[in-house]
Amino acid sequence: MDRFLIRGGKKLKGIVHISGSKNAALPILVATLLTDEPCILHRIPNLRDVRTTLKILEYLGKKVVYKDNTVTITANGSLKNNLPYELVKQMRASFWVAGPLLTRFKEADIPLPGGCAIGVRPVDIHLKGFERLGATCEIKAGNVLIRAKKLNPANIVLRFPSVGATQNLLMCACLVEGETILDNVAKEPEVDDVIDFLNKMGADIQADGKGRLVIHGKKELHGAEHTVVADRIESGSFLLAAAATRGDVVVEDCVPEHNSILLNDLCEAGFTLTITNASVHVHPYAGEIKPVRIRTAPYPGFATDLQAPWMTLMTLCNGTAEVDEDIFENRFMHAPELVRMGADISTEKSVARVTGVKKLSAAHVQASDLRGGFALVMAGLCADGETEVERVYHIDRGYENLEQKLTALGADIRRYNPDKDAF
Ligand code: EPZ
After folding, report:
1. Angle at which helices 124-132 and 163-173 pack, to 10 degrees?
2. Which pLDDT score is estimated for 189?
3. What's the pLDDT tens digit per position in 281-335?
4. How many whole angstroms from 349 Cα to the centroid of ligand 1?
5. Active site includes 317?
6. What is the largest distance, in Å, between two alpha-carbon atoms of the chain?
7. pTM of the full structure
């Protein structure tokens, strides 16, 4: 399996262009199941999770052509309404095909997505929502069999603003005749992008911006063309890597307002930023990194996906910073690996206390999940010596051309596979 070798101590310098958002691309690709007409999607990042989703669409019966970040999806006969465990176990977001399949065919047989490194990740909110729309959900042998004679509009209040449940229920309600109201929905920019695409397909979805969606179901949706929004987690990750290496980096083609909490916290930590409507410039900063406490929360709160990279920055602060992970129950796996690189971190339930050290030291570490893996790459960029990061396949799920983008910023990073590459 691939590893990264990183020789740290270099300040990142230059311009990095942000890719399309993984967490918008995945549900938007799934939303093409709602029509038999062709859909053309631009700025689809070339990631492991995107390739898995394209495989799922092909398995279900779509024809997929993917070239230079553009995907063209067309019908190719009738759609299947079930998925094999092999595909679902690779990526829990595959569960989001349930909504489109249920609303079109009134039945869907989908393996329950297992948990993952960061938590159990149940789908109860998805299933309760389908039941409120008139479906029955039976769990049998690890699959969930969702059936409905007829789906009816409903008023549904999500017990938690789950991103996935919001998107799954939204896609289902698009073809349910009548007015469905979803309350306490997720307000992440990726959800807005899915709504934008569905409305381009002819759906009628009104968002009040305060957590309520009103959907007037249609008989059918037509094909559409769409360019996916910039990846706010990738842009936040590069901003943090630039700051941690005391670099001088302009993050281009991003949406700064999608990272407003992070930008505010970076300024509080002592960094100077120049912000335009599509870029953020992190200026070189040689002063003390001030400890800043963060608490992850649903958007517009501090993004849980940036908690790990933020923790790496705080390992170099002048003082002690608290990191509260309030979204996922097990999202500190990067902490013990950072401690092996000389960081001073103690964790207790959902709180990590990070006391800054002068320098991190290179080590051989393992990524356990996507964002924790990026946090370790960041630490390698800051540490003196050569850091080896194993299980890069986690990182490949969500960062397009990571080593190329970092190398262009002056980092000394290369990918190698000990089973294949002779040294
Ligand atoms: C999406 O996951 C993202 N994934 C995650 O990004 C992100 O961390 C998460 O939203 C939160 O922002 C994609 O968009 C593909 P949730 P999702 O449902 O939809 C609990 C990354 O690194 N919950 O908002 O699965 C759940 O256990 C990934 O790019 C229930 O209890 O997240 C968690 O504690 C990681 N029951 C919390 O809600 C449910 O039915 C948030 O989950 C659903 C969720």
Report:
1. 20
2. 98
3. 999 999 999 999 999 999 999 999 999 999 999 999 999 999 999 999 999 999 9
4. 19
5. no
6. 65
7. 0.97
Ligand 1 centroid to Cα of residue 162, in Å, is 6
Contacts with 404 (C-beta within 8 Å, 6 or more apart), sequence order: none
**Residue 165 alpha carbon to ligand 1 centre in Å:** 9
- Torsional class of 57: left (φ above 0), alpha (ψ -120 to 50), beta (otherwise): alpha
228-233-236 Cα angle (round to 5): 125
Q: Look up the CATH number of domain 22-217.
A: 3.65.10.10
Atom 17 in ligand 1: residue holding the nearest Cα: 164
Let me know if the fold of 3-18+231-416 is the same as that of 22-217. yes
Ligand 1 atom index nearest CA of 123: 40
Do the beta carbons of residue 189 and residue 24 sit within 8 Å?
A: yes
User: pLDDT (tens digit, 9 = 90+) per residue, 290-302?
Assistant: 999 999 999 999 9
Out of 39, 116, 174, 382, the active site residue is 116
At 139, list the tokens.
């769990």
Residue 204: pLDDT above 90?
yes
**pLDDT the model gives residue 422:** 63
Q: Which residues line ligand 1 (CB under 6 A)?
A: 22-23, 26, 93, 119, 121-126, 160, 162-165, 186, 304-305, 327-328, 370-371, 398
Listed by start position, the domains of the chain span: 3-18+231-416, 22-217
Task: Kindly report the protein residue whose alpha carbon is nearest to atom 9 of ligand 1.
Answer: 163
Out of 22, 23, 374, give the residue to mutate to test ligand 1, the one with the largest number of ligand atoms within 8 Å of its CB.
Answer: 23
Fold (topology level) of 3-18+231-416? UDP-n-acetylglucosamine1-carboxyvinyl-transferase; Chain (3.65.10)
Q: What is the pLDDT of residue 121?
A: 78
- Output the CA 12–ligand 1 centroid distance in Å: 31
